[in-house]
Write a structure and sequence with these properties.
NudC_fam, 4 helices, 6% strand, 3 strands, 198 residues, coiled coil, mainly alpha
Length: 198
């Protein structure tokens, strides 16, 4: 099979070269080839009357079937690809991107009050059983605690995040945003800027 494929590729190159010399198209190329068969071979005279016609028709019908099935497969593949592309585009259009909404001053104040109320509620539910003072405690900072029994069963034993979506622990504290993570810790020795990388 690989020998047939290499010969086919070789003949394709040869026939494409010949076809380039026939600007009128396939009928001119066929006319040249049939003329060659009539002049240089016994294609028309070597067999019984009409044998050449049967051979030509059978050969053309065989290659027509192959060509049509290949063409149908290519069309189906193209239709499937276009349908998948349309479905993907439709899906992307239905998934609505996040929108930025500009708030008025009143809406911003109300929104900030809601956030402050949530933070105050979180601060009142914090359970600091250790009795140790937190080195990072400030006016709005809270210490993390374990989630209580009244919460969801799967959340038991996990630490609650602090107001910066991080955690306050005994020796260090961290906060995070989508862009940054900030870690703060206490050291028991003098620290200069030259000791820090960053």
């Amino acid at each position: 099979m690989s020998g047939d494929s290499s010969k086919t590729d070789q003949f394709d190159t040869l026939f494409l070269s010949i076809a380039q010399h026939h600007p009128e198209g396939a009928h001119q190329l066929l006319d040249t080839f049939v003329g060659f068969l009539g002049r240089k071979t016994d294609f028309f005279t070597g067999g019984n009357e009409g044998d050449w016609e049967k051979l030509v028709m059978n050969t053309f019908k065989k290659h027509e079937k192959v060509s049509r099935s290949r063409h149908e497969a290519e069309l189906k593949e193209r239709r499937d690809r276009e349908a998948a592309k349309k479905a993907k585009k439709l899906e992307e259009e239905t998934v609505k991107p996040a929108e930025i909404k500009e708030l008025t001053d009143e809406e911003a104040e109300q929104f900030q009050k809601e956030i402050d109320q949530k933070n105050d509620k979180a601060a009142t539910t914090v359970d600091d059983n250790s009795g140790k003072s937190n080195a990072f405690a400030s006016g709005s900072a809270t210490t993390s605690s374990k989630i209580e029994d009244d919460e969801d069963e799967s959340e038991k034993g996990k630490l609650k995040p602090n107001s910066g979506n991080g955690c306050d622990l005994e020796k260090y504290k961290w906060t995070q945003t989508l862009q940054d993570i900030e870690v703060m810790f206490v050291v028991q020795f003098p620290l200069n800027r030259i000791f820090c990388i960053g």
